[in-house]
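ok so I'm stuck.
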Amino acid sequence: MARRKEPTARQLRLGVELRKLREAAGLKGREAAARLGTDSAQMSQIEFGTAGVSGERVRRLAAHYACEDVELIEALVTMATDRTCGWWEEYRGSLPNSFLDLSELEHHASHRWDVDFLHVPGLLQTRDYARALFSYVNPGFPEPELECRVEHRMRRRAIIERPDPIPYDAVIHEAALRIRVGERAAARAQLARILELSEAEHVTVRVVPFDLDGFAGAGSAMVYANGPVPELDTVVRDGPHGTVFIDAEAQLGQFRTLFHRVEAVSFGPERSRDFIHQLTKEL
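replied:
not stuck anymore, here's the structure
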């Protein structure tokens, strides 16, 4: 296979997981390469995501690594053999790769959790809200580039709007609901959109109110995408140097705990809907 110049986050993750299995088995890269009938350079490229690997080779490596987790092995085989050219590929070269990687991650997720404190989560945003947000952050963007970002964000909503949506849980702080990213009418429409989506069986929206005592979790904003098996879960966070995809098990465990802690202190779904409805009437 031709060497990839810019592997996607999904391709990188496959390599990372294969390396984890090799290291858990106590094998050096050259030893794994020998058992696979290739050389160290090729093995390194596979583990760095710059070279593809067949499903048959993934199974052989798993056997050499004495991995008996059938569900994990099959999930890795799917990652290696999936040739899906998703809708996000239409934006390659027009948007940062992190935008496309997030779209691909969401497409393959089995469940999605969001925690946000300053903005409405992207999957719940209206077009006007998204446009106002991108316009403020990037005031010099030409109209075509701005529209490209807005359209991409709207198309990402497919995972909770398609006929076979994934379960979606969002915890939103009251601050994000009260900040008027756009005009008053747009803010009202945004709240109405959240209420509409929260009525769906697969969507759960919870609100963290301002007057909650002892709450110090405002730094736990996250996108948590559940994979086909827990080992392939991913957390996405916006950092000072761009979007970060987190896959280390210890960190994933911390973020799972953080999500459930924030979820536990938030209003329940019914009370949250009543709360948002009241905010809508105040606008």
